[in-house]
Amino acid sequence: MPSDRFARFLPLAGALAGLIFLTGLIVLRNDPPSESDVAATFDYWRDDRGQHQIVALILTPLMGFLLIFFGSGLKRRLEHGSGDSGHGTVAFGGAILAAGTFALVGMLEAAMTNSADEGNREAVYTLNQLHSYDWVAWNAAFAALLLATGLGALRNGMFPKLFAWTTVVIGATLLTPLGFFGFILLPLWLVVSGLWLAFRDRAVLRAAATSSR
Fold first, then answer.
1. Separation between Cα atoms, residue 37 and residue 141, nearest integer Å
2. Closest by alpha carbon to 171, among 157, 154, 151, 197?
3. Which of 19, 25, 121, 206 has the fewest CB atoms within 10 Å of its CB?
4. Cα gap 25→152, rounded to integer Å
5. Tens digit of pLDDT for each residue in 56-78?
6. Across residues 181-186, what is the average pLDDT?
7. Please, are residues 91 and 78 in contact by the beta-carbon 8 Å criterion?
8. Residues 6+ apart with CB under 8 A from 61
């Protein structure tokens, strides 16, 4: 594997994305669902404006930014030792779609916060309806990413077999009514997979350096 700093950063981008993702889920755990009435939705996005703006304008764009790097790292590792299997391309495509979804979510949350500050109740309610169904794009994106990564890892051994199968199962749940539970596990998966690949690369490089002496 390449030893340059850029290549070593790619898997760590996934771990950082997972930590940011977890932070966002905690901060926005009380987001109003689509069933909320206009008044409750408006009050939520009007309150704590600074907190909402931080999530919308800093955390979500950063999450999307990091996912592009992580997806690139996954593509390189999935293609290593497995030939032209297509797993890496699908995983990278899933990462790109997920990154775009995070950017869109940031735009929606910034727009809702600003509309609430301006007192536009109907705009806030309409934007929140769109925001309530952002999981459709997320589930499709992460299902592709995890299924391709898990199946590719079973093929080239970049993850332990148990973790590879766990990745496949989480990805599959995202395409079912159990998708909520898979979505909750995504931040943990990003952290674990990113750290595993980062430390695995270091171990490979150390072994190569030792054998060349």
1. 30
2. 151
3. 206
4. 28
5. 999 999 999 999 999 999 999 99
6. 91
7. yes
8. 102, 103, 106
How far apart are alpha carbons 44 and 117 in whole angstroms?
A: 11
- Residue 81: is its pLDDT beyond 60? yes
Confidence of residue 203 (pLDDT cuts 50, 70, 90): low
DSSP 56: I
**Sign (positive/negative) of CA torsion 92, 94, 100, 102?**
negative
Q: Within a 10 A sphere around the Cβ of 210, how many other Cβ atoms?
A: 8
Establish how many alpha carbons lie within 13 A of residue 202's alpha carbon, considering only the half-sphere containing its beta carbon. 10
Tallying the residues shown for the chain, one arrives at 213
3-state secondary structure of 133: coil
